[in-house]
Amino acid sequence: MKSVLLIGQSNMAGRGFLHEVTPIYNENIHTLKNGRWQMMTEPIHYDRSVAGVGPVASFAQAWCKANKNEQIGLIPCAEGGSSIDDWCISGSLFRHAISEAKFAMENSELIAILWHQGENDSRSERYKEYHQKLNVIVNAFRKELGVSEIPFIVGGLGDYLGKSGFGRSCTEYKLINDELLSYAENNKNCYFVTGENLYANPDGIHINAESQRRFGLRYFEAYQKKMNILKPLKDEIKLVTICCEKELTIAEKRYIALEQFALGKRTFDEVTEFLKQ
Predict the structure, then answer these.
(1) Given strand 29-33, what is the order of strands in its sheet?
(2) How far is 70 from 63, CA to CA, in rounded Å?
(3) Parallel, antiparallel, or unpaired for β 190-193 and 109-116?
(4) Which of 19, 8, 1, 3 is nearest to 193 (CA)?
(5) Max Cα separation, the chain?
(6) Sequence-ordered list of residues with C-beta below 8 angstroms from that of 256, at least 6 positions apart, any chain
(7) CA separation for the pair 5, 113 (Å, rounded)
(8) What pLDDT score was predicted for residue 230?
(9) pLDDT tens digit string along 26-64?
(10) Which of 270, 239, 241, 242 lies closest to 256, judged by CA?
């Protein structure tokens, strides 16, 4: 099995509203939880009770379409509200991510690290030290995990920032994006993914669910083609539909039935009758 490490702050963890998009179920996509690989369901992260849709489910779904009958595991380590200083290599977030990744690597091959962070640093001229701090973090992850050539993919901040809600204070998001792009352009196996034309929740800071689906496909495009993605993909909405709406397998249907029973949405008799099929 392949695996991907997920790090950064809340827009990597996901805050998109679950009811706004079609759920993704795929028996070949797993999430590391409590030291075990479990079939992925959203939210993938549980950093907050409000965790929701992030970019990674559609990334993983696109990966599976390109790698038939192979499996991918997701290692969720993003932390809402975290600054780049919170990811310093002596801190708990870095050490936790290293620990989780090493555990996952006991029975999977780590193939990428996905990073989305910067809203917290989009003020007070913090962008001036961002490039240097990110470089330390990237090199430390690669060294600690023994993956010197692994792709490190960074997502740009959304151009809705600086306008409303909690995002109003993110006035320097363009400068953070400049630093992220500069880092990707000047470092081997690092790629930038634009946040252009994404939309926010009413809070003005978190990427909404539909945009997260599109964002995940951009991340996959950067991974697959080993290049920066500087513009939204052509026909993104159509691509999301093609990618995410697939015919469910028997195993996936059974998983959903048991999940619905546990949530009180189906009766025991309904589920047992379904499982007989």
Answers:
(1) 36-39, 29-33, 72-76, 2-8, 109-116, 152-155, 190-193
(2) 9
(3) unpaired
(4) 8
(5) 62
(6) 25, 248
(7) 5
(8) 98
(9) 999 999 999 999 999 999 999 999 999 999 999 999 999
(10) 270
Contact 64, 70 (CB under 8 A): yes
Please state, rounded to an integer, the average pLDDT across all residues of the chain: 96
Tokens for 5? 């490490």
What is the rounded average pLDDT of the residues 140-151?
Answer: 98
15-34: per-residue pLDDT in tens?
A: 999 999 999 999 999 999 99
Q: In a 10 Å sphere around its CB, with 0-12 CB exposed, 13-18 middle and 19+ buried, how is residue 2 labelled? A: middle
Cα distances (Å, whole numbers) of residue 153 to 34, 69, 225, 252: 26, 24, 12, 30
State what percent of residues in the chain have pLDDT above 90.
Answer: 87
- 3-state DSSP call for residue 133? helix
Written as six digits, the tokens of 234 are: 């052509």
List C-alpha distances in Å: 110 to 73, 151, 162, 192, 253: 9, 10, 35, 19, 29
Question: Cα Rg for the chain, rounded, in angstroms?
Answer: 18
User: Contact 25/127 with Cβ under 8 angstroms?
Assistant: no
